[in-house]
Amino acid sequence: MATLTKLRATLADGITTVKSQMLHPMETGLFKDKRTGLPIPAHFIKEIKCEHNGATVLDVECGIAISKNPYLSFNFTGGQKGDTIKLSWVDNKGAGDSAQTTIS
Amino acid sequence: MKRRSFLKGSLTAVLAVLATGAGLLNPRRLLAAWPASAFDAKKVPDTLELLFGNTTLIPSQDISLTIPELAENGAVVPVTVASKLADVESITLLVDKNPNALIARFTLAKNTLPYIKTNIKMAETSNVIAVLKVGDKLYSASKKIKVIMNGCGN
After folding, report:
1. Do B153 and A31 touch (CB under 8 A)?
2. Which of A10, A54, A104, B57 is buried deepest, with most CB atoms within 10 A?
């Protein structure tokens, strides 16, 4: 499952930059299957959480309008090289994944 | 005896179902409440009311919204929000003409900088609005983006 989430964290000038990409179809529920004409059910990530040494640094509540294979980048201060960064997400079907890395 | 264990078993099952329903046993539960009604809302003011109980946006020069002005494919529109404002609690992205205006709300910790980069979907030419919550005030910046291909489906 870990291959579903790419995660990287780098430190420069006291600012930690976290970059992540999650493999997910992010179906809106508004498209129809071109062959069958049936609607494709909505399937999307609802929540993403990122923790630095166990403390939450970012909480995302998202809907159907985040692009397929969501990309996310953000910055925080107070991180040191070697600190643990964990990112986890859950979708509207209750499935999820998480990834862990250290600040480099 | 059989009847007793049957009753015991079914009571346990019912309790387990109730607990799961209440989210107590779901290990993947991350947040207390995903704001379903705000994500269902169609218009920006309704969405703001549901998320913040406040619909007054204060336009701010201290928010920069970096998005290509012409989005050929509405399915992937790169958006960067950055700001010089202090003590930003959350960044909310909205698209006023999407089927549902709310894209996402990013809640920041005290040491998280007011900067978010992500990709969003847009249905048609529309304003992208970033709303930054500072205390009980909502600061905003918006940018009109021309969309050629609908990225939402209908």
Report:
1. yes
2. B57
Min Cα distance A60 → chain B (Å) is 4
* DSSP class of B32: S
Q: Which CATH superfamily is domain A2-94 in?
A: Immunoglobulins (2.60.40.10)
Subunit contact A71:B119, Cβ cutoff 8 A: yes
pLDDT, mean of residues B1-23: 57
| A95 → chain B, closest CA residue | B28
Query: Which residues of chain B neighbour A43 with C-beta distances below 8 Å?
Result: none
Indicate the residue of A58, A61, A94 with minimum beta-carbon distance to B112.
A58
Closest residue by Cα to residue A72 from A11, A22, A15 = A22
In chain A, where are the structural domains located?
A: 2-94
In sequence order, what DSSP letters do the residues of A63-102 get, joined into one string?
Answer: -TTBPSS-EEEEEEES--TT-EEEEEEEETTS-EEEEEEE
Domain covering B35-149 in this structure, CATH number: 2.60.40.2470
Instruction: Note if the pTM is more than 0.80.
Output: yes
Nearest CA in chain B to A60: B106
Interface predicted TM-score (ipTM) of this complex, two decimals: 0.95
CA distance B20 to B115: 36
Spell out the domain ranges in chain B. 1-30, 35-149
